[in-house]
Amino acid sequence: MTISQDLFTRAQTSIPGGVNSPVRAFNGVGGTPLFITKAEGPYTFDADNNKYIDYVGSWGPMILGHNHPQIKQAVLEAVENGLSYGAPTETEILMAEKVKELVPSIEKVRMVSSGTEATMSAIRLARGYTGRDKILKFEGCYHGHADSLLVKAGSGALTMGVPNSPGIPADFAKHTLTVSFNNLDEVKAIFEQYKDEIACIIVEPVAGNMNCIPPVPGFLEGLREVCNNHGSVLIFDEVMTGFRVALGGAQQYYNITPDLTCLGKVIGGGMPVGAFGGKQEIMDYIAPVGPVYQAGTLSGNPIAMAAGLKALELLSEEGLHQQLEAKSKALCDGFQQAADEAGIALTTNYAGGMFGFFFTDANSVNSFAQATECDLERFKRFFHLMLEEGVYLAPSAFEAGFVSTMHTQQDIENTIAAAKSAFAKL
Ligand code: PLP
């Protein structure tokens, strides 16, 4: 028995499923989750002393690699002054100013402690601002686990929301409308049906929770237009894409201006941070200026702000995001070539520092339906073969992969070589 297996058995007696967030349990791939003891640069180390090239990056935050010396230093310096005050600090102003500088659509920003809080609060704000109850989201997009957002379409595309977790009253979920990602016709049809009842559209501008699916040309532009025509708020959930796809997020990459933006992951540099911001006119509906309530004991926590601010400063280096995208492309091209040579049907997608690969005959994957039709059994086998080769991919076929500034050319080449030998055994 490995140490990880032993720890997992023990964890299950006191933690539901042995984990504090479900995907970590390896349910999507089978087997035992690795218990991590440390991480450095592009590598993680498990309790059995195995070293892995890591493409999970704590599910996105570690864009500068693990344990970055300058972020660590910023945290250590902040710790000297106490862990939390529950009162304003200058670092919060610096953080807000930095976010505004990097994401110009954000005129005012409120810090929270997770991506879930960011999206939940943005939805409440959009509802309060418009005086409307309904929201529109896309099948396969994940926006955290707030009640309104844990809903996907039932059978048929233009369906009323059905909760996909027990514990969410149907009466509540019915306000969440769900249509297909990358399908503007469905969006227009549902707006035709509900006219001016829809408070907002919330979208992952590059979907990263059904593998990696970039928007097709015209999709995000179309959402902007529909929202303009109907007085609805356009919310970009950039919890994953923010500061990753480009320094200014997917909105910069695709040149679309949302009304509100949700941030998380990278913005905390590895600490628990989220944020939502946007047009001043909308943001001023938030308490204490406006009537929409939103609060948090640890919001703007000084240690978290120090880590996040340092991360954003380091990310502002000229050319950094082009280099990240070059790594995503090199990985995708390398996987594709190796798969072609091995006669394995594969398709890849990438945008900036995120990538995905699908075991499918299709030439491109643009929708949730296509993503779910891929060969999931083949992915499971591939995942475990890669693990044996020392490469740690997300333990699910429905997650994007992440590169960091610390992945070297050699790491990428080693990963492609690992994929080659894995494909040969599939
Ligand atoms: N939005 C997106 C696009 C995400 O990918 C996630 C988490 O993976 C969330 C929101 C929720 O963020 P958190 O897990 O920090 O609550």
Automatic annotation (TrEMBL):
PROSITE patterns documented for this protein: AA_TRANSFER_CLASS_3
Major localization listed first in the record, in broad terms: cytoplasm
EC number per UniProt: 5.4.3.8
PANTHER family: GLUTAMATE-1-SEMIALDEHYDE 2,1-AMINOMUTASE (PTHR43713), GLUTAMATE-1-SEMIALDEHYDE 2,1-AMINOMUTASE 1, CHLOROPLASTIC-RELATED (PTHR43713:SF3)
Keyword terms, alphabetized: Cytoplasm, Isomerase, Porphyrin biosynthesis, Pyridoxal phosphate
Name of the protein in its database record: Glutamate-1-semialdehyde 2,1-aminomutase
Co-factor(s): pyridoxal 5'-phosphate
Pathway(s) per entry: Porphyrin-containing compound metabolism; protoporphyrin-IX biosynthesis; 5-aminolevulinate from L-glutamyl-tRNA(Glu): step 2/2
Modified residues (N6-(pyridoxal phosphate)lysine): K265
Family: Belongs to the class-III pyridoxal-phosphate-dependent aminotransferase family. HemL subfamily.
Gene Ontology molecular function terms on file: glutamate-1-semialdehyde 2,1-aminomutase activity; pyridoxal phosphate binding; transaminase activity
Reactions catalysed, as given in the entry: (S)-4-amino-5-oxopentanoate = 5-aminolevulinate
Species in which this protein is naturally found: Pseudoalteromonas caenipelagi
GO process annotations (BP): protoporphyrinogen IX biosynthetic process
GO cellular component terms given for this protein: cytoplasm
